[in-house]
Specification:
mainly alpha; 339 residues; globular; single chain
Length: 339
C-alpha cells in the first residue's frame, strides 16, 4: 500500500512537467492560429488581433499558462477551435477507438512474441530462432507507417483480401448503439454478427501494423531472458532431480524470466500509444491520434495539449501497473522499494 501511495504521489511532478512542456512546445509551433482561422490570407491586422483576443492569445504567455493551469484544476482541457467542442468531450468520444486498436494490437503482439521468444530460447540456432531474429530485425527496421502502407498495397490493392482502409466500419454497415465505444463489444452486445465481422475486418490491417512494431522488442527480450534463466544453476538442478521439461520451462524458467519481460511489455504498450498517431493517419482511423494530428496541423493548441496530457497519464498508469505486477511476480521487489 505504501508503494502504491508513493507511486501515485510520484505522478504529480511528472504530470506537472508534462503540462509545462506541452504548453511551451505548442507555443513554439511556427505560425499564428489567429491568421490560420481567419481563413483569409489578406485579412487586415485589426481582424487578426480581434481573433487573437477572442482565442486568448493576446495575453502574455505567463498569463496564458496560469489560465490554462486553472482550467486543468477544474477538469477543463479547453475547447477545440476546429470542432467547436470541449476537448474532454472529444477525447472521451474518440479514445475508445484508439484503445480498441491498441488493445487488439497488443494482444496480437503478445500472443505471437512470447511463444516465439520461448521457442527460440529452447532451440538456439534452429529455424525458429532464425525466424525470431528475422521478425525482430524487420520490426525494428520498418517504421509503422511503412508497414501499414505495404500491407495496404499488397493485401488490399493487389490481393483484394482486406477491406478498404477507411475507418472502423464499412461505409454500408450500420453502427451499433454506443455502450462502451468498443465496436467489437458493442456489436456483440447488440447481437449484430454482421457488424462484428465488419468491425473485425476493418481492425485487422491497422492492428497487424501496430503488432509488427511491438513484436520485435517483445520477442527479443523474451528470448534473451529465457536463455539467461535456462542456463541458471537452479534449472540444471531441477533437471538433475528428474523434473519434467514442461514443468521446468513454464513453472520455473518462465516465472523467473518474466520480470524483464513485464518491463518490456509496459514500455511497448506505452510506445504503441505514440505509434497510434501514424497508424490512425494511414488507415483513416477516427481516434485520438488522428484528432491530435489534425489539431496540430490546424494550430489548434487545446487538443494537442489535451492529447499529450492524457497520453502521459496513461503512460504513468502503465508504469504503476508494471510495478504492481513486479510485486506479484517477485515480492522481493516490494521489499527493495520499501528499503
Amino acid at each position: 500500500m505504501n508503494l502504491l501511495l508513493r507511486r501515485l504521489l510520484g505522478m504529480i511532478p511528472t504530470l506537472a512537467g508534462v503540462v509545462i512542456a506541452t504548453f511551451i512546445l505548442t507555443r513554439l509551433i511556427p505560425g499564428d492560429p489567429a491568421v490560420f482561422f481567419t481563413s483569409n490570407p489578406t485579412a487586415d491586422a485589426a481582424t487578426v488581433q480581434a481573433i487573437r483576443e477572442k482565442l486568448g492569445l493576446a495575453e502574455p504567455l505567463w498569463k496564458q499558462f496560469f489560465i490554462y493551469v486553472g482550467q486543468l484544476l477544474h477538469g477543463d482541457l479547453g475547447n477545440s477551435i476546429t470542432t467547436g467542442q470541449p476537448v474532454a468531450r472529444d477525447m472521451l468520444r474518440l479514445l475508445p477507438a484508439s484503445a480498441e486498436l491498441t488493445f487488439v494490437a497488443f494482444a496480437l503482439a503478445v500472443g505471437i512474441a512470447l511463444p516465439l521468444g520461448i521457442a527460440a530460447a529452447l532451440r538456439p540456432g534452429s529455424f525458429v530462432d532464425h525466424v525470431s531474429r528475422l521478425v525482430s530485425t524487420a520490426g525494428v527496421s520498418l517504421p509503422t507507417f511503412v508497414s501499414g502502407l505495404l500491407l495496404i498495397y499488397f493485401l488490399y490493392y493487389l490481393a483484394g483480401w482486406a477491406p478498404e482502409p477507411i475507418g472502423r466500419l464499412d461505409p454500408f454497415a450500420i453502427a451499433p448503439p454506443t455502450v462502451t465505444g468498443f465496436l467489437l463489444v458493442d456489436t456483440l452486445a447488440a447481437g449484430d454478427g454482421a457488424g462484428f465481422v465488419s468491425a473485425l475486418r476493418q481492425l485487422v490491417l491497422p492492428s497487424v501494423t501496430m503488432a509488427i512494431f511491438a513484436l520485435a522488442p517483445l520477442a527479443r527480450m523474451t528470448r534473451a531472458s529465457m536463455l539467461g534463466v535456462l542456463h541458471s544453476d537452479f534449472i540444471r538442478t531441477a533437471r538433475a532431480n528428474g523434473l519434467g521439461w514442461r514443468k521446468i520451462v513454464f513453472t520455473y524458467a518462465l516465472r523467473n524470466a518474466m520480470l524483464p519481460i513485464v518491463t518490456t511489455l509496459g514500455l511497448v504498450f506505452s510506445y504503441m500509444l505514440g505509434a497510434n498517431v501514424l497508424v490512425e493517419r494511414v488507415f483513416a482511423w477516427p481516434g485520438v491520434g488522428s484528432y491530435a494530428l489534425n489539431a496540430l496541423l490546424s494550430l489548434d493548441y487545446a487538443p494537442v495539449q489535451g492529447f499529450m496530457l492524457v497520453m502521459a497519464a496513461i503512460f504513468v498508469l502503465v508504469n504503476l501497473l508494471v510495478d504492481i505486477a513486479y510485486t506479484l511476480l517477485d515480492p522481493r521487489a516490494a521489499l527493495l522499494h520499501h528499503a
